[in-house]
Fold dTDP-4-dehydrorhamnose 3,5-epimerase.
Amino acid sequence: MKFTETELKDCYIIEPNVFEDDRGYFFESFSQRIFEDQTGLKVNFVQDNQSRSSYGVLRGLHFQKGEYAQAKLVRVLEGEVLDVAVDIRPESGTYLQHVAIKLSAENKRQLFVPRGFAHGMVVLSEKVEFFYKCDNYYNKASEGGIIYNDPKLNIDWILKEKELVLSDKDNKLTTI
Ligand SMILES: Cc1cn([C@H]2C[C@H](O)[C@@H](COP(=O)(O)OP(=O)(O)O[C@H]3O[C@@H](C)C(=O)[C@@H](O)[C@H]3O)O2)c(=O)[nH]c1=O
């Protein structure tokens, strides 16, 4: 498993070792021991989430506040997304900077989004099956969000504005 820290501290791109044979392939999609060895971070994932979306769907930018803050390990089981993590740790040297990387079933990349980040993704393929592990439980009262097109963040979501499909909740989010 290859771990590459992004320009944002504690935010990692993870690429698995894939073993191919006549039957297909095999890879470890998560190992707590390797994760902790490679990152020096402690995580304890307690909830797994899965969502399905069509082309143009943009989910984000989301986070949970306070004691319900969540780190997430995200990946794509089918299709391709542009995945975005925004550093919203006020004390961070990279406050309000973001990383955007393509995650697909084909490239099998994962992104580790630490606590203190907002997270979002947009679907680049016809369909996407999205899967992620969280280190804290969902708590509706702790939900927070930032509008995807916040000018301070200036995220290039790749698709045209008119192609984007957002939930009413996400359309009503405000700037940071
Ligand atoms: C996130 C979540 C939602 N739900 C419910 C609430 C709601 O009725 C329905 C859909 O919720 P949402 O519209 O918030 O789902 P969605 O827009 O997919 O939210 C997700 O977006 C990505 C970008 C993230 O980073 C995630 O942490 C999460 O916020 O599912 C849960 O029961 N548990 C959960 O953990």
User: Anything to note?
Assistant: The helical segments are 32-39, 168-171.
